[in-house]
Specification:
This is F-box domain-containing protein. It comes from Gymnopilus junonius (Spectacular rustgill mushroom). By secondary structure, the protein is α/β, with parallel strands linked by helices. It has 4 domains: 1-50, no CATH class; 53-231, no CATH class; 235-307, no CATH class; 415-534. The strands form 4 sheets. It has a 15-stranded mixed β-sheet. Strands 5-6 form a two-stranded antiparallel ribbon. Helix 13 runs parallel beside helix 16 (492-501). It is globular, with a radius of gyration of 29 Å.
């Protein structure tokens, strides 16, 4: 298959890979797939322009020598992309060496200690002195990712302590005017992650930027300069901080379409970031601010900007009754909504009123983070999913996210109308499910063809005992609470995992008959599970361990039996699903 791709198409794919700023997997590795791919890769020299990851934790001379050898193999006109990590040396020559090629920099990712910023400034100044015009410094730089980490070297800590730069034998300024990348006429994309405790003034070409991202745990790094410059081309802005600051400059960004702003431990005495912005072109907003009323600030932003939001993600400590309704009334074009714990009074606004209209009529996707199960919320979602309202779209895709597997299963039982099983039997089944899951994990990576050892044999013996207890409890399939017992305990999931391993993949299957026994258990449970799933027209399906998604069979969606019985794998990474609590620092 890999050799059947036409040469021209594969070449185009390689060109696109060469333009990707992601440096985790260097694009040049595609030439290792086969001889055909290697021949095509030779026609795309940009694939080799991504240098191997450069670690400043390694010894100095070999690092520089290897870097020089790699660059020497490239044509002198090839632009360079590189990633520098692990800044454990206060005075490491690798950056000074890379600066010699600064005119060829294209995509750059640097991880530095704060004390080295002055050294980088001075090294860049030495380069500038060689040219009459500053424009010759970084003429091809398009993407910059800068991560400033805590000091780890003794020299760096001493420089910070005594305000003296040991690297350059000069006073060490507590507040640095960071200007190393100030002259970069093609720079369009900047990401900053700042872990320092000193207020910096970062000099960057903010005017032409299209995208700016800043994560800061303590002091701001460049956000004030971004707002002061009011870049007319800025389209995507992310500012995520541990805490807010007392005052932000006011700014109007006429082209900004996407804003992601999160303050994790704010104070009500600080100014809201949204209060300082006017964004007439804003379409997508993600907002978290634990120190301010984000609803009132967002309402004021929309009123002030006259923007038409199509996607809104917000997380508030407490949503007061009527606040969400007030906000969505100002966003009639909203198509995607993500929020937490909708008050019952606001749920009612989603139903149509006498003239057939309702709140957010264009809404297509809704994600609600629920601290506890709410039958009223499920009823509202199901009613909007009917698509029979005159002024609504014909399909609403819904996801309910819960803190733990326990709350998720409780909500599932509530939505599907299961009767809750007794605690004693349920606790026993949960214990058996957890024990079986943990023992199966010990089988991971084992092959039945490997020689049997005492430890593996002991694990299989314990699994045999657990299955025997489960088989004793198999009579639950004859009760009216079958689905509640099985799904609330999750007992069917590890049993199903054993079946999926197949007879040839299960250790000691010939001795203990694991494959046939687990199949017998599922054959006993599945009829009750199937009849329960088919009893309702709509089905809430488990995804991962914390989400319920609603699917309408009449919408044309394919419902596999395995999805109905065992749920689906989680399709959204935890960092995106739980964005409101996943701090990037």
């Amino acid at each position: 298959m890999i050799t059947s791709i036409p040469h021209e198409l594969l070449q185009l794919i390689f060109w696109l890979m060469a333009e990707d700023p992601c440096l985790e997997i260097p694009p040049r590795t595609v030439r290792l797939v086969c001889h055909f791919w290697r021949d095509v890769a030779r026609s795309v020299p940009e694939l080799s322009s991504t240098l191997p990851t450069i670690s400043m934790a390694k010894s100095q001379t070999p690092t520089v020598s290897a870097l020089e050898a790699h660059i020497d193999q490239l044509p002198p006109t090839t632009l360079l992309s590189f990633r520098v990590v692990e800044p454990r040396y206060y005075d490491h020559p690798v950056l000074n060496h890379l600066i010699k090629y600064s005119e060829r920099w294209k995509h750059v990712s640097l991880e530095l200690q704060h004390s080295y910023l002055s050294g980088l400034n001075n090294a860049m100044d030495q380069l500038y002195d060689k040219h009459i015009h500053y424009q010759l410094s970084l003429p091809n730089l398009q993407f910059l990712k800068l991560k400033i980490v805590k000091e780890s070297s003794i020299e760096g800590k001493l420089a910070r302590l005594f305000d003296y730069d040991l690297l350059n034998m000069r006073p060490y300024l507590s507040t640095r005017f960071f200007k190393a990348f100030y002259v970069a006429p093609q720079l369009r994309d900047v990401e900053i992650e700042y872990h320092g405790s000193i207020w910096n003034v970062a000099w960057l070409p903010y005017g032409p930027l299209r995208r700016y991202v800043e994560y800061t745990k303590t002091k701001p790094f460049g956000i004030h300069q971004v707002m002061n410059y009011k870049g007319e081309f800025l389209e995507d802005l992310t500012y995520i901080a541990q805490k807010s600051v007392h005052l932000y400059p006011t700014a109007t960004f006429h082209r900004l379409k996407s804003l992601d702003h999160r303050i994790y431990s704010g104070s009500t005495h600080f100014q809201s970031f949204l209060e300082c912005l006017t964004l007439p072109a804003l379409e997508r907003l993600r907002i978290l601010d634990n120190g301010n009323n984000i609803i009132s600030a967002t309402v004021a932003l929309i009123d002030r900007s006259g923007c038409n939001l199509t996607k809104l993600s917000l997380y508030s400590k407490v949503l007061e009754a009527g606040e969400l309704t007030q906000l969505l009334e100002r966003a009639p074009l909203i198509m995607e909504l993500e929020c937490n714990d909708i008050p019952v009074s606001d749920m009612k606004a989603f139903y149509p009123i006498s003239n057939g209209r309702c709140l957010a009529p264009r809404l297509k996707n809704i994600v609600v983070h629920c601290s506890s199960p709410e039958r009223e919320l499920a009823t509202m979602i199901e009613s909007r999913s009917d698509g029979n309202y005159q002024h609504t779209v014909d399909q609403l895709n819904s996801r309910l996210v819960f803190p733990t597997f326990k709350e998720c299963m409780t909500a599932w039982a509530l939505f599907e109308g299961w009767s809750m099983p007794s605690d004693v039997k349920l606790r026993k089944l949960k214990m058996l499910a957890g024990s079986l899951e943990s023992k199966i994990a010990l089988w991971s990576g084992k092959s039945p063809s490997e020689p049997n050892n005492w430890k593996e044999s002991k694990v299989s013996s314990k699994i045999d005992a657990i299955l025997a207890e489960i088989e004793d409890e198999a009579k639950i399939a004859c009760t009216s609470n079958t689905c509640g017992y099985i799904k609330m305990s999750g007992i069917h999931i590890p049993v199903y995992k054993i079946i999926c391993m197949g007879p040839t993949g299960i250790p000691h299957d010939a001795k203990y008959q694991f494959s046939s026994r687990t199949k017998n258990l599922l054959n006993l449970w599945i009829p009750s599970l199937q009849s329960d799933s088919q009893a309702r027209q709509r089905r809430w399906i488990l995804e991962g361990k914390s989400s319920l998604i609603q699917i309408k069979p009449e919408s044309g969606a394919t419902l596999e039996e395995e999805d109905l019985l065992f749920g689906r794998p989680q399709t959204i990474p935890d960092a995106d699903l739980f964005w409101w609590k996943c701090r990037p620092f």
